[in-house]
């Protein structure tokens, strides 16, 4: 008999998302559902995943084991939100108000608002204040089913302020259940004190900030905002290459507001992910497919910027690019912690099937986090990170929208939200 300290039973369906990671093409839509599926874990790892009828025959509950009753709901791997700008201070409600009245994101940025407005707030905040501001956000992320996430710096834009953001992330990772992968985004925009000397800022990033973030183990990846009027291809390449030399995986904000060759650059650098891709064309898609780079799509940003052009998710899947979905959670272009909301947008606006969107939000998100071997699917040996949806089967996920369907969250075998949580 298999011994377990956690049993999850009583579900109408369990979705495993089991299989090789990342998942592309036809496999993007394979979720491995088990009717009346159940799961069991020991010491934080899955020891059983299968029909509930087998659970009773094969698994023995250890004394004091926790039993989570899914109450006729659906069990899914925890969401892997592979793109957030979590450690920020302040909000940009005033800007949102102006955008709703017709101003564009780029107009606001050109007038010194946008990213730079959050940079001012972050520079003025202490590490402790950044931690405090992020706590309720992490509570909401977890409550909406996110058990692993990425968190980027990028609102400090000085050596000390970028490291301060990353230290806040490290503290947050240690004090609550969701797992956080930190990304250095010092090349998010040119700080005003370097206006007229772009070269000096690129050198500060490559020669000082990257080496320190790497040697203090504050980040595992490096990201750049490649965009007209932000950083160009050559600057982006230099920053990401410097990151690689220091052991930081490359990620890229690519082709978001215009076609800038971001997808091609991400492929050339064998990046972990190319993110956004609203303006990516056929050459970019072919390059990503050949490199096996994960496309992280962020339909929440398109939605909240009220733009008509969503990333062409169908063409990406059809080209064989593994597609992931993430929130892009940030105060400027996408102020939501909700992965269920992102799934709804992905299905209704980008025309992913519900199954493709589920794989994108779990297994492929895990790949984009560089955590595909540990999280993202429900398979024996992997971490017991799962959620229970108050839904009779997975098809309800994008369909029943605007509500939080997550009834319980399990991280590393512990019930951390809902369910029978203490
Ligand atoms: O992913 N595109 C650049 N960065 C963010 C926006 C950050 C901000 O506006 O504060 C994004 O959309
Ligand atoms: Fe972003």
Give a structural overview.
By secondary structure, the protein is of the alpha/beta class. It has helices spanning 52-58, 93-100, 105-110, 115-124, 127-143, 159-175, 198-215, 233-245, 262-268, 282-291, 299-304, 313-318, 339-348, 354-361, 363-368, 396-399; strands at residues 2-9, 13-15, 33-35, 37-42, 45-51, 59-69, 74-77, 79-81, 146-152, 179-187, 221-225, 249-254, 273-276, 294-297, 323-325, 386-389, 406-411, 414-418. It has an 8-stranded parallel β-sheet with strand order 8-9-10-11-12-13-14-15. A 6-stranded mixed β-sheet has the order 3-2-7-16-17-18, with no helix packed on it. Fe (iii) ion (FE) is lined by residues 83, 85, 253, 328.
């Amino acid at each position: 008999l298999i011994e377990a300290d956690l049993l999850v039973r009583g579900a109408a369906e369990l979705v495993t998302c089991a299989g090789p990671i990342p998942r592309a093409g036809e496999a993007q839509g394979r979720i491995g559902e088990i009717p009346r599926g159940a799961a069991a874990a020991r010491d934080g790892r899955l020891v059983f995943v299968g029909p509930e009828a087998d659970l009773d025959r094969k698994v023995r509950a250890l004394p004091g084991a926790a039993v989570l009753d899914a109450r006729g709901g659906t069990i899914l791997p925890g969401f892997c939100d592979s793109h957030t700008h979590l450690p920020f201070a302040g909000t940009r409600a005033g800007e949102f108000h102006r955008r709703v009245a017709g101003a564009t994101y780029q107009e606001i940025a050109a007038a010194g608002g946008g990213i730079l407005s959050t940079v001012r707030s972050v520079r003025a905040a202490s590490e402790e204040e950044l931690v405090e501001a992020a706590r309720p956000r992490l509570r909401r992320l977890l409550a909406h089913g996110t058990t692993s996430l990425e968190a980027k710096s990028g609102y400090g834009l000085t050596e000390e302020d970028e490291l301060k953001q990353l230290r806040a992330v490290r503290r947050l990772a240690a004090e609550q259940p969701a797992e956080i992968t930190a990304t250095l985004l010092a090349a998010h925009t040119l700080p005003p004190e370097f206006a007229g000397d772009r070269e000096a800022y690129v050198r500060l990033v490559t020669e000082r900030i990257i080496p320190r973030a790497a040697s203090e183990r504050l980040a595992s990846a490096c990201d750049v905002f490649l965009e007209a009027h932000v950083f160009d291809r050559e600057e982006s390449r230099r920053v990401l290459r410097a990151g690689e030399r220091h052991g930081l995986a490359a990620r890229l904000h690519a082709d978001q507001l215009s076609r800038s060759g971001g997808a091609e650059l991400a492929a050339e650098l064998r990046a972990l992910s190319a993110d956004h891709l609203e303006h990516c064309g056929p050459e970019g898609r072919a390059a990503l497919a050949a490199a096996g780079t994960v496309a992280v799509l962020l339909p929440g940003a398109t939605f909240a910027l009220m733009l008509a052009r969503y990333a062409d998710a169908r063409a990406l899947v059809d080209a064989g690019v593994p597609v992931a979905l993430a929130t892009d959670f940030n105060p400027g272009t996408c102020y939501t912690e909700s992965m269920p909301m992102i799934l709804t947008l992905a299905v209704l606006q980008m025309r992913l099937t519900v199954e493709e969107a589920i794989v994108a939000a779990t297994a492929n998100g895990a790949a984009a986090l560089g955590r595909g071997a540990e999280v993202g699917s429900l398979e024996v040996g992997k971490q017991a990170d799962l959620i229970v949806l108050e839904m009779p089967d997975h098809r309800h996920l994008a369909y029943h929208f605007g509500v939080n369907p997550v009834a319980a969250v399990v991280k590393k075998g512990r019930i951390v939200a809902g369910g029978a949580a203490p």
